[in-house]
């Protein structure tokens, strides 16, 4: 069970949504291979094509900290100001409902 679920929200600059999507999708494979990663999904809004979200579950918060310190995530984060109108908003959650 995940100790940490994150929802990260990105809002692409006009004309940069496709570039942002490509960059986000490149994070999926290496993220899913990290120890402690239980889920890593990229979503694009049906209402606003510039709005993207990453949903991720981590076994422990420390696993997420290691993820954020990885070279490939740091390289991606350095591009965010070029691709997005604002900095990424990362919201952390704990599951409160029982497992099915």
Automatic annotation (TrEMBL):
Q: Name one Pfam family in it.
A: ABM
Membrane-crossing segments per the record: none
What are the recorded GO MF terms, alphabetically?
Answer: monooxygenase activity
Q: Which residue range or ranges hold the ABM domain?
A: 4-93
What keywords does the record list, in alphabetical order? Monooxygenase, Oxidoreductase
Top-level taxon of origin: Bacteria
What PANTHER family does the record point to?
A: ABM DOMAIN-CONTAINING PROTEIN, QUINOL MONOOXYGENASE YGIN-RELATED
How is this protein named in the record? Antibiotic biosynthesis monooxygenase
Q: Which organism is it from?
A: Sphingomonas oleivorans
User: Lineage of the source organism?
Assistant: Bacteria, Pseudomonadati, Pseudomonadota, Alphaproteobacteria, Sphingomonadales
